[in-house]
Design goal:
With 362 residues, the protein is of the alpha+beta class. The chain contains seven helices and 21 strands. A four-stranded antiparallel sheet has the order 4-10-7-8, with helices on one face. Strands 14-21-18-19 form a four-stranded antiparallel sheet, with helices on one face. A three-stranded mixed sheet has the order 6-5-9, with no helix packed on it.
C-alpha cells in the first residue's frame, strides 16, 4: 500500500502484491505472504563440514576445489553432489558460492547439496546471500561462522515450485544488473584514463598545441614547450621540517586519496601518537608526499596540496615551493608524477621509502 496522494514506487508498480500477508514472527522480517512459512535454517538444510586437503595432496582433475572465498584449484575427486552451495566458515566467513557441478569443499567451508537440503538450492543461494551470514561471528583471533549460530537464523520459505520461480527471476534480473555494473566499471576506467592523460598533458605540454616544442631531457616527459625550462627540484622547492613543539597547532590533517583533509582525532580510527609534538606544522600552499611502502602499495595516491594550516605526521615529506611556482600547478605536476607511477621507478630496488635526498634531483 502507498500513502494517500503519493505515486506508487517503481517496485510497487512492477510487482503485484499477494492476496494477504501475515506476521512472520520475526521482528526485523516483518510480514510475509500468508502461505509462506518462517523456518529456522536448521529446518531446511544441513551445513556439512568441508574436508582438509593439503596442497601436495591435490591431483589434477575435473572437480573445482572451493575455499571460503571461492575456487582455489582443481582435484580428481569431489566431496559434494552438484548442484551445491559452499559457505565460508573461516576467513571470508559467510560468503556464499554456488556451483552447478560437484566440488571439493575444503575445511574452511561448509557445503550444502541435495542430500542436505529440502529446498531449491539456487533459491537458497539467494536466500542466504540476503541473510548476510557474514554478520555472524564468534569473537576470536580468526573470525568464523559457527554452525549453530547459522542454524538459528530464520528464513521466509515458500513452496519449491515458487522457489524455482523466484530463483529464475533473480537469475535473470541480477544478470541484467551485473551487465550494467560491468559497463559502468569500464566507463569509470576509461574516464580515469582520460583524467590521467588530461592532467599529464596540461602540466607537461601546456594548453597551446601549436607552440614550438623541444626535448625536455626527461625520458618520461619527452617534449615540452620551447619557452619552458627544466630545473632539479631542489632549486625550486625546499623540504620544510617544522615540528609542533609545545603543541602550537591543534588542527590535525591527514592525506587521504590525494587530498589533505581534517582528521577527527576523537573517532579512534587509525593509530594516534601519544603527543602531537612529533607532528610537523604545514601551511597553505605546502605539498605533502607520502613516499613510504613503495614496493607493497602501488595503488594509493601519494601527493596532496595543503589548503589550511595544520599538523601532519612527520613521516611525510613537506615541500615549500619558493621560485615563482604556483602551488596548485606544482601540486598537479607532482600529482602527474604520482598517477603515472614515476615515484615507483625512482624507489626501485630494496628501498621502500624515499626521502627528500632521493627527490632533490628530480
Amino acid at each position: 500500500m502507498t500513502d494517500k496522494g503519493k505515486s506508487p514506487s517503481p517496485a510497487h508498480r512492477r510487482f503485484k502484491p499477494y492476496p494477504s500477508y501475515k506476521d512472520s514472527g520475526v521482528e526485523w522480517l516483518g510480514k510475509i505472504p500468508e502461505h509462506w512459512k518462517t523456518l529456522a535454517l536448521k529446518r531446511i538444510c544441513r551445513l556439512g563440514y568441508g574436508d582438509s586437503l593439503a596442497a601436495d595432496e591435490r591431483r589434477d582433475g575435473d572437480f573445482e576445489v572451493y575455499g571460503s572465498n571461492g575456487p582455489v584449484g582443481v582435484h580428481d575427486r569431489s566431496n559434494s553432489l552438484g548442484p551445491c552451495l559452499v559457505v565460508g566458515r573461516k576467513g571470508s566467513f559467510g560468503k556464499i558460492n554456488y556451483s552447478q557441478n560437484p566440488v571439493f569443499a575444503i575445511d574452511t567451508t561448509f557445503f550444502i547439496d541435495s542430500r542436505y537440503s529440502s529446498v531449491d538450492l539456487r533459491w537458497l543461494y539467494f536466500a542466504l546471500t540476503w541473510l548476510r551470514l557474514d554478520s555472524i561471528s564468534k569473537d576470536s583471533a580468526i573470525p568464523g561462522l559457527d554452525r549453530e549460530d547459522a542454524y538459528a537464523c530464520f528464513v521466509p520459505v515458500c513452496s519449491v515450485e515458487e522457489q524455482r520461480e523466484v530463483a529464475s527471476f533473480l537469475d535473470r534480473e541480477t544478470a541484467k544488473i551485473d551487465a550494467l555494473i560491468e559497463k559502468k566499471e569500464r566507463l569509470i576506467e576509461l574516464l580515469q584514463e582520460k583524467r590521467t592523460a588530461l592532467i599529464t598533458q596540461a602540466v607537461t605540454k601546456g594548453l597551446d598545441p601549436s607552440v614550438f616544442m623541444k626535448d625536455s631531457g626527461v625520458e618520461w616527459i619527452e617534449r615540452i614547450p620551447g619557452s619552458w625550462k627544466v630545473y632539479p627540484l631542489f632549486t625550486v622547492a625546499r623540504e620544510k621540517e617544522k615540528r609542533n613543539i609545545g603543541n602550537q597547532v591543534q588542527n590535525v590533517l591527514s592525506l587521504s586519496y590525494g587530498k589533505i583533509i581534517n582528521k577527527d582525532v576523537d573517532d579512534n580510527f587509525g593509530l594516534l601518537p601519544e603527543s602531537f609534538e612529533t607532528y610537523q606544522i604545514v601551511n597553505e600552499g605546502n605539498i605533502i608526499l607520502r613516499l613510504t611502502d613503495l614496493q607493497n602499495d602501488k595503488r594509493s595516491l601519494r601527493v596532496g596540496l595543503v589548503r589550511n594550516q595544520g599538523i601532519i605526521t612527520s613521516a611525510y615529506i613537506c615541500l615549500d615551493f619558493f621560485r615563482d611556482i604556483d602551488p596548485p600547478y606544482a601540486f598537479y605536476l607532482l600529482y602527474a608524477y604520482d598517477i603515472t607511477k614515476v615515484f615507483y621507478s625512482l624507489g626501485g630496488g630494496v628501498r621502500q621509502t624515499m626521502k627528500f635526498e632521493d627527490l632533490k634531483w628530480l
